[in-house]
Each structure stands twice: as C-alpha cells, then as structure tokens.
Write a structure and sequence with these properties.
The radius of gyration is 21 Å and the shape is globular. It has helices at about 15-25, 90-105, 125-140, 160-170, 195-210, 230-240, 260-270, 310-315, 330-335, 345-350, 350-365, 370-395, 400-420, and strands at about 45-55, 60-70, 75-85, 110-115, 150, 220-225, 245-250, 255, 280-285, 295-300, 320, 340-345. Helix content is about 45%, strand content about 15%.
Length: about 425
C-alpha cells in the first residue's frame, strides 16, 4: 500500500501527523478501506511565485500555495494563511484536515488550503494588497464558487478576503461574492462568522463536559492562543461561569489563580495586538503554562503544540482543540492512557467552516439571515455532529478522534466509491 510523505519525513511534520491519523482509522473502515489511498494523496497542489514591488521600489519574491486535497463531496473549502513558516507540507496537511472536518460535520465540501510564506506584519497595507491581488491572479485558475472557496486563516482577515473577491471578480468581468467567505458584511459576508470557530469550541466543549461530569460553572480553563478563536471561547466560557486562569500567546503567558478578566483582556489585546503588559494577571514562564492545574485546556494557536512530553505533564480532564492539528499522535496515546478526553479539531473547531457554508449559501441566494438564525443553525449542526461522534465512540470503544475520523472517512470514501473513477 503506497503512502506519500512529501516534503518531510520527520515524525513531527504536519503531513506525517495526518498520515498517521489515517493509518489509525483505516482498520475500522471495513470494505471502504479499499479506497483509503484517496485520502493519502492530495488531488491537486499549486505552487506559485509572487513577485512584489515593495514601497521602496525593490522587487521581492514570495512563494504561495493552494492545495485541494479532496473534492469528492463538493468544492474545496479552506483558509489562506500568511505566515513565515508556511510550506507545502503544512498546507497539504491543513487541506487534508479540512476534508475530514467538512465531512465530520456533514457539510457538502471537500478540503483545501492556501498560504504565502510571508510575515504580513512586516508589509505596509499597500504591499499586502498587491501581494494578495497577485497571489489571487496566480491561483485564480483553480478557485471559484463551485470549485474552491478560500477563507481567512492565520495572518489574513476580512479585508484580505475583499481584495481576493475583487481581484477574482475583475478577472471574471462580474462581481462574484461567493468566491470567498469571511468577507466584510457589506460585501456579502455573514453575521456571526468572525466568532463562529470560538463559539463552536464552546458548544462542543459544553456537550462533552456534560458527558464526562464537568460543570462549566466554576470550572477552570487555560487557553493557548488569543486570536478570534481563543478569545471568543474564553469569553463564552467566562460568561457561563468558568474561571479562565491562564492564557498564552506569542508575547507572553498570563496566570491568575482566581480568574482573568476576559472582557478586559480582549480590550487590551485589541488595542495592543498582544496580551503582554496586561495588568490583571501575572506573567509566568512559557514552560510553566503546561503545568497549571485546570479542568479544561484549549489549544487555539498553531499545530503541533501538544507533544508526548507535554501530554505527560498537562494537568486537565478535557482538551478542546481550537487549533488545527495541535496534538501529535504519540501524545494522543499518552492522553488516552491518562484518561484525558480530547475533542478533536475536526469537530471542535468546525464552527468557522459551518458559518462559512452559511455565508456561501447566502451569497448564492442573495438572501441573508440574522445572527440569531445563524447561531441557532450552527449550534444545531455542531451539537448533532458531536452527538454522532460521541455515540460512535461509546459504541465501539474508540477515542473521540478515531470516532470523528471514522464518521468522516465513511462519508468521503462512500462518495468516492459511488462516483467511481473517470476515465476508468
């Protein structure tokens, strides 16, 4: 049985982590395992050179990517990341996790992902716009509202999506709002989109906490990453009576044994783009964050944060994966042995893609819903997805991650099987 490793053979690479997750689920797929290699091979990977005239007149070149992992269930869906560490290996893994995620919550999408290896904070707004428009022109041959629909990710936002939508539309000769999601509201964006991923983390966390006997009110929570996902999850847990006692971002680690004032921290972060300097908590060493006693831990930063060593030391009962791929497979084994429940990323953080789906539907119909309608629809989808994963986990004595992958892979591979291979 052939397997692709691409780019890196490292046991800690994102793509290797994904492949190991697929290896683990394959024995549970019965006759559908015949099609398992579909999931080990990206359908399409595009690497583009992006020349950019800087404000000082010099020409710099940046490398960009768009990967479509699987399109068996519908058009590709996945964000665009601007970050210095973006590479093909990472983008392939993120696109594959999007394939699993969309199927796990039963959205009619396949998985895709894109990115540019760049530090967006080192560019002026003009340079960032020119970079985005050139990148869009380069990947325009494979994206579109019925082909592949990008969205924001690390280092990108609604303004970047507006530039992508405008560039694509100019090249098409007509306004195509449905080519991206995560746009500003006045350009066809959806209410509730910005907070959706963090809300989904809370909704799925609340459901599983109830199953394992954790009461949200009075529970202690620690969060790694305080962007849209981490801050919204923190806000909701705090509003429902949890005590958020530790928060970590790229700038520092904050700790307050009694509770951090999340509303005040969000205000500080919005003004300063970092949590360092916040006066409502003590700053502690980065490594000490992993030893804080807590009930619930939310990794909401980048992938590969929960290593086997950290898994041995982390002191919690429930992990909610707000980030994509934060836990290595070997760390999963340690957490299972320690009876720590993990709600996997492909369900836990699927609120964002769920509301992206709503945005796409609204764009196609030119008919828009209220935020209350969107939250109700999203909550219903997330709760049902979590119920199906929980039930399969209990019935078959799987971890929640294995159960989520079985649910998703069955849907993807059934679609692949029934569509067949053309030309044969």
């Amino acid at each position: 049985m052939d397997k692709l490793s691409y780019a890196s053979d490292s046991n800690t690479s994102s793509w290797t982590t994904y492949l190991r997750q697929i290896d683990r689920v394959a024995p549970h797929l019965g006759e559908l395992s015949r099609w398992i290699n579909t999931l080990r091979h990206p359908k399409r990977a595009l690497i583009v050179d992006i020349p950019l005239q800087m404000d000082n007149g010099t020409i710099c070149h940046f490398e960009g990517y768009r990967v479509q992992h699987n399109l068996s269930r519908g058009p590709g869906k996945g964000g665009i990341r601007y970050h210095p560490n973006v590479d093909l290996n990472e983008v392939m893994a993120l696109s594959a996790w999007m394939t699993i995620k969309c199927a796990a919550v039963n959205l009619p999408y396949g998985g895709a992902k894109g990115g540019i290896r760049v530090d967006p904070f080192l560019l002026s707004e003009g340079e960032l716009e020119r970079l985005t428009r050139r990148y869009t022109s380069e990947i325009g041959i494979i994206i579109g509202p019925q082909k592949d629909i990008p969205a924001p990710d690390v280092g990108t936002n609604g303004k970047v999506m507006a530039w992508i939508m405008d560039t694509y539309s100019m090249n098409q000769g007509t306004t195509v709002t449905g080519v991206v999601t995560g746009k500003p509201i006045h350009l066809g964006g959806s209410l509730g989109r910005e907070k959706a991923t963090g809300r989904g983390v809370f909704i799925t966390g609340r459901e599983v906490a109830n199953h394992i006997g954790i009461k949200i009110k009075g529970s202690t929570v620690a969060i790694q990453g305080f962007g849209n996902v981490g801050s919204e999850a923190a806000r909701l847990f705090s509003e429902f009576g949890a005590r958020v006692i530790a928060v970590q971002d790229h700038s520092t680690t904050l700790f307050n044994e009694k509770s951090i004032d999340i509303a005040a921290l969000i205000d500080w972060q919005n003004k300063n783009r970092k949590i360092a300097g916040f006066k409502g908590a003590d700053e502690i060493k980065e490594d000490d964050f992993w030893n804080v006693p807590m009930d619930i831990f939310i990794p909401a930063a980048l992938e590969g944060q929960v290593t086997p060593e950290r898994a041995k030391n982390i002191n919690c009962r429930l992990i909610l994966e707000g980030a994509n791929g934060p836990t290595y497979p070997d760390a999963d084994d340690v957490l299972i042995q320690r009876d720590i429940t993990v709600v996997p990323d492909v369900v836990c953080n699927a609120g964002g893609v769920t509301v992206s789906y709503f945005e796409w539907v609204q764009d196609m119909a030119s008919f828009f819903w209220s935020e209350d309608e969107i939250n109700l629809r999203m909550d219903r989808i997330m709760i049902e997805a979590m119920r199906q994963v929980w039930d399969k986990s209990i019935k078959n004595n799987y971890s929640l991650r294995t159960a989520a992958y079985v649910v998703a892979c069955e849907r993807i591979l059934m679609a692949r099987k029934d569509r067949g291979i053309y030309p044969g």
